[in-house]
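Researcher: Sequence of SWIM-type domain-containing protein follows. Predict its structure.
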Amino acid sequence: MTATVHALRYQRSSALRPGRLEFATSGGATPHGAVRHPRFFDGALRHPDAAAAALLAVADVAATRYHRPGGGVSLDPVVTADGDRLRFESFSGCGGVHARLDVLPEGLDGAPTGHGTTNVDVNAPLREALRLRAPGERLTLAVGAEEMTVGTAAGTTVERRVPLPPRWLKGFAETQLLTARFDPRARLTAAEAVRFLRALPVTGRGTVRWVVPAGPALRAASRPGPGAVCLPGPERLAALRPLLRHATALRVYAPPGTPAEPTASAWELAFPGGRLTLTLSPDSSRGFSGEGGLLDLLAQDAPAADADALAGLLAWDPRIDPADLAADSGLTPERVRAALAHLAGAGQLGYDLAEAAHFHRRLPYDADRTEHRNPRLRTARALLAADAVGPVAGDIRVVAVGDHAHHVRVGTDGTALGCTCRWWARHRGGRGPCSHVLAVRMLAGGAGTSGGSGGSGGSEGSEGLEGEGPK
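Model: Prediction complete. Tokens:
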């Protein structure tokens, strides 16, 4: 499968000048359409030391591969402005850590924040300058400065081309769905947060730990049990440590219920004027891009008009309420959920755990290519188009794939429950359905075969670790 890579162009390099942090932007989306170098904010950071450390943390995550260190990474975070705050987001080079910095209204002092989404250039000289800046030094922030900044006597413009990986898009889509199901599990005071995070290893081999809330602290647990929270790859929280002297609280989020196996979790460090959230995949060798949590929703044939109607209502809203969208659009809640899934597949939704609400962003990806970026969905449609799904015989449907067959177990209502393929044997549905289960579910639900093309049905496509290689 050919991967689409989006090249980012910057008018100049980002830089930290005396008391002023200037971020160069690539092309982005705004309420007025696409803009080559959008401008979102020009003012001061009210808590400059904490904000500078948090920006460095987002950049450090983007520059790190926690699994199999080495190889190429993308160093240009996505920034979203929604009228009252700025959000900077990145994924680790291995795709298993999502970092988001929210600079809140109380952390910004300047002209009104604009609306839109773009990428900002965080280069090595800027990172070094942020690290070496004097404590307490006033720091103003310009996001999207279009003016030419002359770095030499010749006054040449610097233009860089860097790829925005397609796996970031799938990662954004999967993390918003995953974290929307999380519950708050613990809140640590600043002192307890410092004690807990400083005791964690900064390097490791992806071990899984379990912790249990114990009053205002977290204590280690030997195994999963009632109230336990999974800490997969504790060394991946090392990006929070430079912020500890500014911390006011640490909040922990995880799926509800008693875990039976490692799960994802989110760790939100609050500081004056903002918060930094790290979401960890269930294992350091597991990237978010292959989770497959959206597949069942994407399999529903949501009319393009529904997605277009909702896209027009989102308007970079920092708090999206599906019930309000249903009322404003006249769509049923079910149609809203299906349409939002397709928008999420195009990177248009994020989820803010602190606000317990989705927010709007727009990434430079073609929404019509959502299915192309999900090989299991594309393969399931090809199976249906080829009439490869047989009738129900007892509690089994046979899915013919070339000269062999997979047996999909179904419930009394026809819902697919499991499969004999290698993918299901490895993941047991923990990373979304295989293409055979998905095809059976689509057939039972009456989903059509529109939009499908290609796919032999013989494998689960290229949704492997970090979005690379076959499963």
